[in-house]
């Protein structure tokens, strides 16, 4: 099992990060909590997938919203460099601070044993892991950077093609279909990651 992910928590510290890690942060600024996912590159940089940036100065809490309304004043503003990088949306690179927006850093674990994958915590399923094996970090970073350079991960879709799908694809080389339709997984012999609210 990957470092930092336990039955109680998937939270890790910055010093524990390794290039190619699938990381995420929970956001609680909307009615429904959601997680924003990305691939940690190195030197405090994260490659991630966002919707078209109607208000790039407002942070992921606005970018991940399914509505087109502008963000509230409580949103975390991106630094000027990240704001410029994210103006067009799609696959982008930002600093870790802008990715987290002041929230805790979490690690998504791969290749976990079935017993861990199937655990429940106070009535909820594990949302921190997958039994699917991960690719070597060099390959993960190659795929993430290739998608960043060529912008060919498709159009952002809140349900079918979002930041989680991007990070999962970079880590495994496999597509993922939301678990309400597990039979629609690209590789039906694998178990899908446990559901979390993803945007």
Short précis:
The chain is an alpha+beta fold. It has a single domain (14-184), classed as endopeptidase domain like (from Nostoc punctiforme) (endopeptidase fold (from Nostoc punctiforme)), CATH 3.90.1720.
Mind explaining what this structure looks like?
This is LRAT domain-containing protein. It comes from Panicum virgatum. InterPro entries: LRAT_dom (IPR007053). The chain is built from six helices and seven strands, in the order E-E-E-H-H-E-H-E-H-E-E-H-H. A five-stranded antiparallel sheet has the order 4-3-2-1-5. A hairpin with a 6-residue loop joins strand 1 and strand 2. The chain is an alpha+beta fold and 199 residues long. The chain has one domain: endopeptidase domain like (from Nostoc punctiforme) (endopeptidase fold (from Nostoc punctiforme), Alpha-Beta Complex). 22% of the residues lie in helices and 16% in strands.
Average pLDDT works out at 76
N-to-C order of helices and strands: EEEHHEHEHEEHH
* Strand count: 7
This entry's quaternary arrangement is single chain
In the CATH scheme, the class would be Alpha Beta
Strand order of the largest sheet: 4-3-2-1-5
Proportion of beta-strand residues: 15-25%
Helix run count: 6
Low-confidence stretches: 65-74, 180-189, 194-199
Could you give a short account of the major beta sheet? 5 strands, antiparallel
The appropriate CATH architecture is Alpha-Beta Complex
Helical residue percent band: 10-25%
- Taking the alpha carbons of the first and last residues, their distance comes to 25 Å
CATH-level-4 superfamily name: endopeptidase domain like (from Nostoc punctiforme)
Estimate nothing, just give the exact number of structural domains.
Answer: 1
